[in-house]
Amino acid sequence: MTGPPLDAAGPSPELLRARAFMSRVAEPGHWALWRFVEQYGPIDAVRAIVAGTVPDDVAAVTAARRDRTDPDADLDVAARHGIRLLVPESARWPTTAFAALQRAATAAGAARRVELMAMATPPLALWVKGSLDEALPVRSVAIVGSRSSTAYGDAVAAELAFGLARRGVVVISGGAFGIDAAAHRAALAAEGATVIVSAGGLDRPYPAAHANLFERVAHAGALISESPPGTAPQRHRFLSRNRLIAALAGGTVVVEAALRSGALNTAAHCVNQGRPLMVVPGPVTSGRSAGCHALLRREGYSALLVESVDDVIGVVGRISEVAVRTAVNTNTGSDMSRRGRLDSVDALARRVFDGLPARGSISVERLASRCGFDIREVIRALPVLEMAGLVERDESGVRIAVELG
Amino acid sequence: MTGPPLDAAGPSPELLRARAFMSRVAEPGHWALWRFVEQYGPIDAVRAIVAGTVPDDVAAVTAARRDRTDPDADLDVAARHGIRLLVPESARWPTTAFAALQRAATAAGAARRVELMAMATPPLALWVKGSLDEALPVRSVAIVGSRSSTAYGDAVAAELAFGLARRGVVVISGGAFGIDAAAHRAALAAEGATVIVSAGGLDRPYPAAHANLFERVAHAGALISESPPGTAPQRHRFLSRNRLIAALAGGTVVVEAALRSGALNTAAHCVNQGRPLMVVPGPVTSGRSAGCHALLRREGYSALLVESVDDVIGVVGRISEVAVRTAVNTNTGSDMSRRGRLDSVDALARRVFDGLPARGSISVERLASRCGFDIREVIRALPVLEMAGLVERDESGVRIAVELG
Asked: Among the four residues A143, A192, A236, B199, which has the most C-beta atoms within 10 Å?
């Protein structure tokens, strides 16, 4: 079952060890640690953490485990389970997906909204198990919802996942009972690719009753976790895991969710990252759709009501295509001019870009008004422009991205 | 069963005969005829029509029946069935409700959109049967939907109608199978008032299987029709009937509707009249909710998703209260100053009013942006301002109402 090395001629063993150390030394989602690693590089960052020569905020989140971290052991255990470590230095790292996280975190930092920064901190490394050629699907949709779903929710999740998988879209979800499982099973039935983003170590499927499902998903797609082998899935890990589901997917569909469902947290991540949030309505007589309806009504969320595979493809298809083109452009010369990047986006996105003021931010509502577009069109166009590095979000709305260099 | 005369000291027999003539001589919804009657008064208008000395557009719609119209016979048949004629000259005429129609028709005329003018032509008279003290409910909600409803739709319609009736809100609908009947039956069960707006003469309940339901509704509320006794319900009469359902109600709730349901036509009237359109979502696996979801997604409709009685009261309650106050103000001195009328509306409506430009129209989206409100808040406030005569709609959006005199 052990697959080929993900990055045969990729990052050095030293780098992998340093990233494995980071994955173990702190819980996911600490912005100060992520910034520190970005600034000094993982190898020097490890040395500083071990030596205790780090800023207070980094020391605070690493002190407890810095002397109990054994990256070689973690990598060994991982290898025995067919789990590989994917690192940002790899060509296969989902740069585009996580750029949205980083932008959201930066914007939250500028607005001094600490809780949103944690929500949007990119991962330091990912543990991956599976045969998915492209571990970081560009054309993908997250399908999330209630663990205690109804027959209606299961049927809708299955229909969407089956149809999307048949059309080559990778389905992403957690590994829980209910909607998650219905989506994965249908994608597998369609012989498509599907990805479980797990809140715990990939050597211990959770829930245990899904061991076989995890096995099948690893075979047909991939299991992904931010936590090293042996990590127990705990509540806070589910919450930080949800940001990765939203980030890895071109858009998130909430199929069925009660008012306190964890799926609403994934929806919040999706919105925070500027990704399109799609929602399936349901009977108002079922509390299991009450969370969905709350999302559809929530101001500032601009959730899109979807009923079918075609609806979802209509929202995500275009974004994915542009993301692919942008990724290709980035690989062949990342300092492409703004003009060039504008040419790479569709006409709608170009017109929305033209509606932005030369300086400063404006609200999405005002931007829609300036463009003469319906606000929903603008919301669909923004992720395209963000992925192309043309616009940025901040606390007051959106603005033209600052050109670097 | 014959109730007391609706307007004991009201309009003269001559006026009633003239209006009864108008009700018979042409099909509902002819703007040219309505304008002609407004201009010359019904009595002189009848003389001119009979003499054939009318403009071509009025002649075109009255020529076929002008010599076969017997208002005395119609009024006699009506009286035998306990049906009375309510005319615009009566103090009980729903002036406020139909003012929105007239404004929409005027705006459509200015935009040369003939089809929208017909949609918004006020009625020339209404045939009424029932015990409802106030035949023209101010605090009312229309509940409409599919004739071939599901158990889900019936249950939701019944729950909404029951709860609204219990809280003193009059339920308005057609008299059809499905959602209409479920709503009326539940309102009756709650011992509330309910109104059937019929597409045919009130002496012939349609469908015939609902004869008993019509009887009970007349007893606990009212039957209303634009057509004189003996008129068969035909397709075009259902369409013009729908505008009255939307106009008489403070807001319209679409409970369950397929993509080609007649309820979508009522929804279009509701939006055309600037009234709040509420929509109940349902399972996406049922084609019977597909029309509802289409309404929720339709650009420019700004339909509000509702799940409960509280949701509906939240939308319509405030509007109704203001309408009552405005109606009282109109009765005690209709030339109330703009300042006085502004004081009569709630704080939200006042702030929306303050966002309007001194001259010219702006789109609702732009108005929302100027006020710093969510667009849905503005859409809720606009009917309040319209009913208070403070704002008008035209083809480019909304503007401060022109002061008369």
From this structure: A143
- How far does B66 lie from chain A, in Å, by closest CA? 48
Tell me the C-alpha distance between A109 and A122, whole Å.
Answer: 14
Closest CA to B374 of A383, A297, A399: A297
Per-residue confidence band for B125, with pLDDT thresholds at 50, 70 and 90 = very high
CA distance to partner chain B, nearest, from residue A299 (Å): 7
**How many Cβ pairs within 8 Å bridge chains A and B?**
67
Same domain, A174 and A249: yes
pLDDT 10s digits, B231-253: 998 888 888 999 999 999 989 99
Which residues in chain A have their CB less than 8 angstroms from residue B375's CB?
365, 375
d(CA A227, CA B5): 80
Token pair of A279 as six digits:
């929602």
Cβ-based burial of A299 (10 A; exposed 0-12, middle 13-18, buried ≥19):
exposed
How far apart are alpha carbons A396 and B1 in whole angstroms?
A: 65
Domain count, chain B: 2
Domain stop point among B260, B280, B313: B313
Q: Are residues B160 and B280 in the same domain?
A: yes
B284 touches chain A (CB under 8 A): yes
Between the alpha carbon of residue B69 and those of residues B35, B65, B143, B230, the distances in Å are 20, 6, 35, 13
Distance from CA of A371 to the nearest CA of B (A): 11
Six-digit token string for A241: 């895991």
- Specify burial of residue B403 (Cβ count, 10 A radius: 0-12, 13-18, 19+): exposed
Q: How far is A378 from chain B (nearest CA, A)?
A: 13
Q: Based on the domain organization, do A172 and A233 belong to the same domain?
A: yes
Which CATH number goes with the domain that contains B364?
1.10.10.10
**Contact call for B365 and A363, based on CB within 8 A:** no
Give the residue, A14 or B353, on which the prediction is more confident: A14
Hey, is the C-beta of A363 within 8 angstroms of any chain B C-beta?
A: yes
| Shared domain check, A143 and A207 | yes
Give the integer Cα–Cα distance in Å for A102 and B68.
Answer: 78
Q: Which residues of chain A neighbour B368 with C-beta distances below 8 Å?
A: 365
pLDDT digits (tens, 9 = 90+) for A175-224: 999 999 999 999 999 999 999 999 999 999 999 999 999 999 999 999 99
User: Nearest CB to B281: which of A156, A282, A374?
Assistant: A282
Residue A396 pLDDT > 70, yes or no? yes
| Whether residues B268 and B378 fall in one domain | no
A366 vs B300, B369, B376: nearest CB: B369
Is B105 within the bounds of a domain? no
- Minimum Cα–Cα distance from B305: chain A residue: A297
Contact B160, B191 (CB under 8 A): no
Question: What is the span of the domain harbouring residue B296?
Answer: 129-313
Q: Residue A64 has what DSSP assignment?
A: T
Q: CB contact, 8 Å: A369 with chain B? A: yes
For A289-301, the pLDDT digits (tens) are: 999 999 999 988 9
Listing DSSP states for A328-370 in one string gives HHHHH-TT--HHHHHHHS-HHHHHHHHTS-SSS-B-HHHHHHH
Say which CATH number the domain at B301 has.
Answer: 3.40.50.450
Domain co-membership, A153 together with A215? yes
ipTM given for this complex: 0.74
Residues in chain B: 405
- Side chain identity at B353, as an amino acid letter? F
Q: Is residue B210 domain-shared with residue B264, that is, in the same domain?
A: yes
Question: Regarding beta strands A126-130 and A84-86, do their DSSP bridges make them parallel or antiparallel, or are they unpaired?
Answer: antiparallel
Q: H-helix or E-strand containing A42?
A: helix A42-51
SS3 content of chain A, % helix, strand, coil (to 5): 50, 10, 40
Check A281 against B285: CB less than 8 A apart: no
Q: Which residues of B touch A369 (CB under 8 A)?
A: 363, 365-366, 369
